[in-house]
Amino acid sequence: MSRWIVLITLALSTFIIVVDTTVMNVSISALIVDLDTTVGGIQAAIALYALVMASFMLIGGKLADILGKKRVFMIGVCVFGVGTFLASTSQSLWMLIIGWSVIEGIGSALMMPNIQTILRDSYDGAERAFAYGIISAVAAVGAAVGPIVGGFLTTYYTWRWAFRIEVLIVILVLILCRAIAADAKREDRPSFDFAGAILSVCGWSLIVLAVLLGQTYGFVMARQPFMLGDVAINPFGLSIVPVLVAIGLASLVALFTLERRRESAGRPGLFRPSLLSAPGLLPGISARFIQMAIMAAFLFTMPLLFQLAFAFSAMETGLALIPFSLALLVCAILGARLSSRYSADRIIRAGFVLAVLGLLIIGGTIRPDAEPEDLATGVVFGAGLGLIASQILNLVLSSVAPEQTAEASGLNGTFEQLGNAIGVALVGTMMIAGLTAALSSQIMALPGLDAAQQSVVIATLEQSVELVSDAQITAGLDAAGIAPEAQSDILSGYAQARTQAFRTGIWFLTLLGLIGLALSFKLPKRKLV
């Protein structure tokens, strides 16, 4: 019996990690009001959560080699619980970022790689296959019911209850952890690669931070100076963004060089670069990166669209996502059954084709007069992601020898969370760019403004534009004393610009989907069963 309690423990841990982000996505409007912040602020919190997980994923796996997988897993659960409790009591965006994005993100990173390792070591043969299937099913169910549970709690109670319930589950997981076998004592504990860990965290953090700052400071030339205290950082008129990207890339190059030297010298490092040469591994984790980027960005964009354009509550938003969630769940199961007849690369390729088709349909139906039911075509997109999800992890792990599975899982998890972080950061930036371009076109068409005045208005717009609801615009216009008859024209103009912003985001996701489709032709052509 205790052996199956292990599976229940790991399944509960997987469930709370998966549900966590989906709750945030459907609660965006409530979070903006309760924490007195903006869409950009919540976007940053969601992206930073995934970034912290990505940055610490390999570290979580390596710490298990030193301290033991059970101990690190339990430490991760405790850290996750502390972060969840802080998030539930947040009174400001910064408190949410510290509790949820940082502390809870670190806890998740310590848990996730060790869930896979404990599962692998606890079961063999058919039991192991069954256990992996249960964990995958729990993850799919979490993704499907997360928006509904989060929407219900946010609408009828408060989003804080989602985190409070997670705290209770954390306590239950800690009690059940007694069923997990104790870590074997090791005579030769490997040393921890501190230099590699620092370079990894710095490299990925700076790149994602650069993407988040791009919409404010400009991606190449500075829209406004980046101030560090009293010092303005914009060398040669450049934005801070290319500076951060350059430092981030240099850190990653240094990381790869360091790890290659450690591997050549036979010393343990954060990861083994030679692993990337395994046939199918690099294309596999790259395809996983794209899949997670478009899914995370979609789950950020669509709730925002429902709540800003259609004034949906969090509950209505969760219900509107049911077609997508069910299609993902059903096709993930269907894809697993198809693996006995078709090679993994063909199933993944079909998934990307459906995902791109679904995004094209959604992009075509987003318009100012659209009805919510017009966007039920998310079912096609969800079906595509379900097919991809059914194969990609198995393909990645089957690309390496059994003794390299844990390390490959860590790399896969890192790229997965990087996809989440960069997907959300980029789609938010693209939507703001689309909104700015549409509003700028309207300003250029206004009579009575000369070229100099137009430039001043557009420059101001680029620094302060935000995605907001009609109710927020109306409140602002009322406060400014704008006559009701003039408000309708302003609302109509902004609704058109907002539509263009969301369409820009969806077209960007379509481009990512096409890149994923191209990558699928590089995957190994073999069946996984």
TrEMBL record:
The keyword Lipid biosynthesis does not apply. Keywords: Membrane, Transmembrane, Transmembrane helix, Transport. Its main location: membrane. It comes from the Bacteria. The chain crosses the membrane at residues 40-59, 71-87, 93-110, 130-149, 161-182, 194-216, 236-258, 289-312, 318-335, 347-366, 378-397, 418-439, 501-521. Residues 6-528 form the Major facilitator superfamily (MFS) profile domain. GO terms for cellular component: membrane. One of its GO terms (molecular function) is transmembrane transporter activity. SUPFAM superfamilies: MFS general substrate transporter (SSF103473). Pfam families: MFS_1 (PF07690). It is a multi-pass membrane protein. Gene3D superfamilies: MFS general substrate transporter like domains, Multidrug resistance protein D. The keyword Membrane applies. It is found in: Membrane. This is MFS transporter.
